[in-house]
Amino acid sequence: MKEQFNKDVDLGLRNFPKTIPSKYFYNKKGDELFMQIMNLPEYYLTRAEFEIFKEQANEIIAALKLDPNVYFELIELGAGDGTKTKELLKPLIAGGFNFDYIPIDISKNALDQLEESLQEELPKVKVLPKQGDYFKMLEELKDSDHLKIVLFLGSNLGNMSDQHATEFIYKLGANLKPNDKLFLGVDLMKSKAIVGPAYDDSQGVTAEFNLNLLSRINEELHGDFNLDAFEHKPEYMEDEGVAKSFIVSTKTQTVKINGNKNSYFFKKGEKIHTEISRKYNDAIIDEIVKETDFKIVDKLQDSKKYFADFILIRS
Question: What domains are there in the chain, each with its CATH number?
Fold first, then answer.
């Protein structure tokens, strides 16, 4: 993991423009900061999707056409703390459904905390956590003939370009069998007045979350980033529905990473692109899905129509 982190950082900082994959936000401190972000008043995404799970859990079960007498595997990609998913697990347990919950996450810390909280809150849920790359973990489950329901929530799809999103969903389908389902949560297109503050909160937690990526490089790869010489700068293109996050150098400087024995030159104002957050409508989702083995069969939304969860079935 550390070796790949080193390679990805080196490659990204040699690129023009400079980039670092957003997956590296999530060490222990990154997990904690993102938990804070999800509770910020400006960050509507988590609340909107949580409302769907809280208020429409039985509708989700009905839309997925789950049968209490048929065993299935409930697989969650990027499970995090499982707050939303717990609202679905409750009626599944109460209804006597026969399933295993398989959370997959790159963060062992997040999985350990999730498993511990489930043991306390929902001890009847059988949890089989898996740490690592989504597709490696799915490949391990591929040979099972059991029905699979894959949850990909939080608009994590939005961290990809549309082409990459199509490739991602196609690759998901390659690890599933006909009639398996994908429950896909996406943030919907809306005004800059709503979206902008979600990525630039008044308390500065999102900025700290982004800059923690540099702290992680310093700690794990022995870098010498001066965090005071960089700042978080988000952008949102309302017409395209694309939010981007950048870490920007506030001066001309050179940063050294002893872990790979390389140095990286930054001009004043030069950006490191860390994250994209795509917003969607039905037409965009249709375009992304049409080149995959899935078809959309249902959709649920929160009361403000900020967020949507699509149900897709593998053909």
Answer: 2-20+209-278 (no CATH), 44-190+280-314 (3.40.50.150)
